[in-house]
Specification:
The structure holds two protein chains of two kinds. Chain A is an alpha/beta fold. Chain A has helices at about 5-30, 45-50, 55-85, 90-105, 110-135, 150-175, 180-185, 190-220, 225-230, 235-245, 250-285, 295-305, 305-335, 350-360, 375-380, 395-405, 480-490, 500-515, 525-530, 540-550, 580-590, 595-605, 610-625, 630-635, 640-645, 655-669; strands at about 340-345, 365-370, 390, 405-410, 440-450, 475, 520, 535-540, 555-560, 565-575. In chain A, strands 1, 2, 3, 4, 5, 6, 7, 8, 9 and 10 form a ten-stranded mixed β-sheet that branches. The radius of gyration of chain A is 30 Å and the shape is globular. By secondary structure, chain B is mainly alpha-helical. Chain B is flat. In chain B, about 45% of the residues are buried. Classes of the chains: A alpha/beta, B mainly alpha. Chains A and B meet through helix 1, helix 3, helix 4, helix 5 and helix 6 of A and helix 1, helix 2, helix 4, helix 5 and helix 6 of B.
Chain lengths: ~675, ~290
């Protein structure tokens, strides 16, 4: 056979270059001194050190390893036996089973994910009734009536998609095996178990190993199925990364991935050297050349058959088992220990040190999760996948949740810090009697623009829609804000239910869209786009603008003259929250002046706490030794005359929401 | 003895019934019902509304299939030659190459896709490179335009690139597995009988590797058509695909699991068709997914 020439080899090389270019970049930027993934700011091992302090990354890594290890172990054992079983069936039975076996592998991941998600939710629904019935009928065992998606469902899902890979790898080995071997072994006096361990297992071992390896790889890399079956309280590393890719991926993730990558690389290299040796040996054996075994290896093999050797082998096996169980136990303890208050908020919306402090102060473990929009949060809650205690939705979503009976009334006697909330932020339309909420932050929506890419100052929303900045504008990617802004520009109320007005707003956006004014539709992706100077104009929240300003000084912010939306995000507790009292403690802790000051400093959103709001400039000076730019303070905490121009969203009636949705779909395609 | 061993299949059959078959039936039920508000809360009512309402999304269907098709074709045209060349190398080279193809899976695909964002951005590495090399100013002079970057991210091209990048190994592996097992004597025989190398390829190698191609095509096409992360990261929210649509019905703003289930059903039917096609070409698919 002709070997490939230079041309052929370089084609393979090019292909690998294509596959590895992004990976090299990732590894390269894990050593970056700065936070960017595009600008090199010098060599540093900073992010590798940071790795051990980033709880989100560490916890999700532990979850990923736990799920992958457990599901691979279960799937390998179950898959091997299933394969043996299936291959001793007659063809009539075997073929349909193999077709069903193929389904999870051939089906799109997203279909597998949602089918399992719907199944689990339906099961939990049914189980609630059964458990109540069982509990009413007997009092010996108290069955939990409420179950949610979590680690268990995640592991079941992973086992489910892993088993087919194991079967597919074991099956050909079984097919190659001489069927009479087992019978012969048994004729010679082996019991079934002995025949299995001494005959079948050695024959199919390579299949089992490669099946387990593939299963483990698939498990670690899986995102889509986990995303739909993990629910709210559990997060795997790919899910964490997905959350981050929207805003900013911290180089800590690059560091983790580099370490994992290197670990696998080393395993592969060792494996390769071994199999290369084996191949050479086999080749020599095949050519009847005398094979000189390493005498030490020979002696070792002989020793293994002595009683002591056998004992040593059993011991090794036992130790491996203990190590496996120990690792799984440790990871379980690490990820599942006392999850006593489940909080769901937005990405990068808290000074994370506050979480550690709260834990140290109260001994309550905080399970802190994030989502990226009110609508996503609503879907999560509706689908029954969420098991939060505290959520932090925005005004209009709060009234919708109240309306649908999804929130619990708070016990304000346990939240003394509520007294410090500015009267301006109490009894707002979304919660008129203030029974359900404690405000977390407030702010305005405005235009963020890059002064080097836009001529002059922007004062009006019109810059979003006219041709002067075509191709440089980022549209906010949710219907409420995108149409709300257009309504404001046209001089209507953001809360209008008049379909003609809403349609006019839609026409405005759709027309600009057709003319190619918008470069894309973004939510948190706006950070990367604006900080990197990849777009000139975007609409987003004042607080987030100030975060971007730290990374790009050319950015400016304005609340346009036509007015805008102002919002309050508030902490609420979900109906039947399992950890109500702990939730009260958390809310009270976060509502304190000190927490508010530090949050304000960290996330740049204005606080509703009167003291914190007043003290912030002085506190800033004390912390950083320089005065806080009054302009920045004004953007963060908009003065009353700006707020007077702005309107707060109130929840729209159901038909209007459906109308919004339809228009939004028409815009999207 | 035989019967005793086949009992091992029973637990797995039960497992599959619970965790594979029933969930799909539930999706089917969801797709055929809509929630209706009555005096005592929401009840489900049988309806074909979800399927008839899908006409609104014809554009998304069209785009998904078109982009996935292009990505699959590109994967085939890159993947086949690479698999072919690899199968003609020595065993050592092959082992290393196989390992190198599997290895990227250990770096999360979202992260790798995110890395492409940094490359393709308007101020990204590629545009910086083009600017340094003077390609952008050359382009401006040739076409009389005035641009300071090429718009690469947030276009359908970027989405296709993301698909090709992520799923290329799934095209190479099955084709390679088939080619490497190909009996070399057949090729020699064909050559001895007077076929030139083009004819040998067309009449011998290609037909014999068809099962690998079919499973490669399915393994690239199915995830491509259903992706939502890639289109979101590289398509900038403008290139809505089927996956985005489904995700949006379950965990996104639109929240309508019934519609989402209906779209999933349609997608599942497509997968079924793919499986039928695959079975038609023999069981190459099975071997394709093994190391």
């Amino acid at each position: 056979m002709k070997k490939n020439g230079f041309g052929g080899r370089s084609l393979i090389g090019l292909c690998f270059l294509f596959l590895y270019l992004p990976i090299f970049l990732l590894i390269f930027f894990s050593f970056n001194a700065g936070e960017s993934s595009a600008v090199w700011q010098g060599f540093s091992l900073h992010w590798y050190g940071e790795l051990f302090h980033n709880r989100l990354v560490i916890e999700s890594l532990a979850t990923t390893l736990l799920v992958s290890l457990l599901s691979t172990a279960i799937a390998t054992v179950a898959g091997t036996f299933a394969a043996i079983g299936i291959y001793s069936l007659t063809k009539k039975w075997r073929d349909p089973i193999l077709v069903v076996n193929d389904i999870p592998m051939m089906n799109a991941d997203i279909v597998t994910g949602i089918s399992l998600c719907l199944f689990f939710v339906a099961f939990f629904h049914g189980w609630g009734g059964i458990a109540r019935w069982l509990n009413s009928w007997q009092s010996l065992i108290k069955f939990p009536t409420r179950m949610t998606l979590g680690l268990t469902t995640l592991i079941i899902a992973h086992v489910s998609f892993n088993i087919p890979y194991v079967i597919l790898n074991v099956a050909p080995r079984l097919r190659q095996m001489d069927k009479n071997l087992v019978d012969a072994a048994q004729d010679l006096g082996c019991t079934w178990m002995q025949a299995f361990f001494k005959v079948i297992l050695p024959e199919i071992k390579p299949g089992i190993v490669s099946g387990a390896l593939i299963a483990f790889t698939m498990s670690v890399d899986d995102f889509v199925i986990s995303y739909f079956t993990a629910g709210s309280a559990t997060q795997t590393l790919p899910m964490t990364i997905y959350g981050m890719t929207k805003k900013r991926v911290t180089p800590v993730v690059n560091a983790v991935s580099t370490l994992m990558f290197l670990a696998v690389l080393i395993v592969l290299i060792i494996n390769n050297i071994r199999s290369a040796k084996q191949a050479r040996l086999n080749a020599r054996r095949a050519s009847f050349e005398p094979v000189r075994e390493n005498p030490r290896v020979e002696r070792f093999k002989a020793w293994l058959t002595t009683p002591r050797g056998k004992l040593a082998r059993r011991l090794t096996a036992a130790v491996t088992c203990v190590i496996f169980i120990g690792t799984v136990g440790f990871l379980t303890a690490f990820t599942q220990s006392r999850p006593v208050v489940n909080v769901c908020s937005w990405g990068e919306y808290i000074d994370e040190d506050l979480i550690d402090e709260f834990e140290a102060e109260t001994g309550i473990r905080v399970n802190y999760q994030t989502t990226d929009s009110n609508e996503t949060l609503y879907s999560l809650l509706k689908s029954g996948g969420a098991d939060y205690d505290v959520v932090v939705p925005s005004d209009y979503m709060i009234s919708q949740l109240i309306e649908e009976g999804m929130l619990e009334e708070l016990d304000y006697s346990q939240i003394p810090n509520f007294e410090k909330i500015d009267p301006r932020f109490r009894n707002l339309p979304y919660d008129p009697e203030n029974k359900y909420t404690v405000p977390y932050t407030w702010g305005t929506v405005g235009i963020i623009y890059n002064s080097t890419m836009v001529d002059g100052d922007i004062t009006s929303w019109s810059s979003l829609y006219d041709d002067s900045n075509a191709g440089q504008v980022l549209l906010i990617n949710n219907s409420r804000d995108a149409f709300g802004i257009a309504l404001k520009y046209l001089g209507y109320s953001v809360n209008t239910t008049d379909e003609d007005e809403i349609r006019a707003a839609y026409e405005l956006v759709a027309d600009a869209n057709d003319r190619g004014v918008f470069q894309g539709k973004v939510m948190d992706e706006v950070f990367q786009a604006m900080e990197g100077g990849n777009a000139a104009i975007a609409t987003y929240y004042a607080g987030d603008y100030l975060s971007m300003l730290e990374n790009n000084e050319d950015l400016k912010f304005v609340v346009p003259e036509e007015g805008s939306n102002w919002f309050v995000d508030a902490m609420c507790v979900l109906k039947d929250a399992p950890n109500f009292d702990n939730a009260m403690k958390w809310i009270n802790f976060i509502a304190s002046t000190d927490s508010n000051l530090r949050n304000m400093d960290y996330i740049w959103y204005a606080s509703p706490n009167t003291e914190a709001l007043e003290q912030y400039p002085a506190w800033y000076e004390e912390q950083y030794g320089e005065e806080l730019d009054p302009e920045i303070y004004e953007i963060m905490a908009a003065p009353q005359e700006v707020l007077d121009r702005c309107e707060m969203y109130i929840v729209l009636p159901r038909p209007t929401r459906a109308f919004y949705n339809n228009l939004w779909i028409q815009l999207g395609i | 003895m035989k019967n005793k061993r086949s009992l091992f299949a029973v637990p797995y059959v039960i497992w599959m019934a619970i965790f594979v078959v029933i969930p799909i039936i539930i999706v089917l039920i969801y797709s055929l019902t809509v929630p209706v508000e009555t005096a005592d809360g929401e009840v489900l009512q049988g309806s074909l509304e979800n399927f008839t309402g899908m006409a609104l999304y014809a554009g998304v269907f069209g785009r998904s299939f078109w982009l996935a098709f292009i990505a699959t074709v590109i994967c085939l045209f890159i993947g086949y030659p690479v698999a072919y060349l690899m199968s003609r190398e020595g065993p050592g080279f092959q082992r290393v190459a196989m390992a190198l193809i599997m290895l990227p899976m250990w770096m999360n695909f979202l992260l790798r896709t995110y890395s492409w964002m940094a490359i393709l951005e308007n101020n990204g590495l590629l545009n910086q490179l083009f600017a340094k090399l003077g390609i952008i100013s050359l382009y401006n002079r040739l076409t009389g335009s005035d641009i300071d970057h090429f718009q690469m991210i947030r276009t359908s091209g970027a989405v296709v690139l993301g698909m090709v990048y992520n799923y290329l190994p799934f095209m190479i592996l099955p084709i390679y597995t088939v080619l490497v097992k190909l009996d070399n004597r057949l090729i020699e025989a064909a050559a001895d009988l007077g076929a030139n190398s083009a004819t040998v390829f067309r009449r011998v190698t290609l037909p014999l590797s068809l099962s690998g191609i079919v499973s490669g095509v399915t393994m690239v096409f199915v995830p491509s058509v259903s992706t939502f992360a890639i289109s979101r990261l590289l398509g900038g929210g403008k290139q809505t695909m089927l996956g985005d649509l489904i995700e949006n019905q379950f965990l996104g703003g639109a929240y309508n699991p019934h519609l989402g289930a209906a779209i999933s059903m349609v997608m599942m039917v497509i997968v079924l068709i793919c499986m039928v096609v695959m079975n038609h070409f023999g069981d190459g698919g099975e071997e394709a997914m093994m190391l």
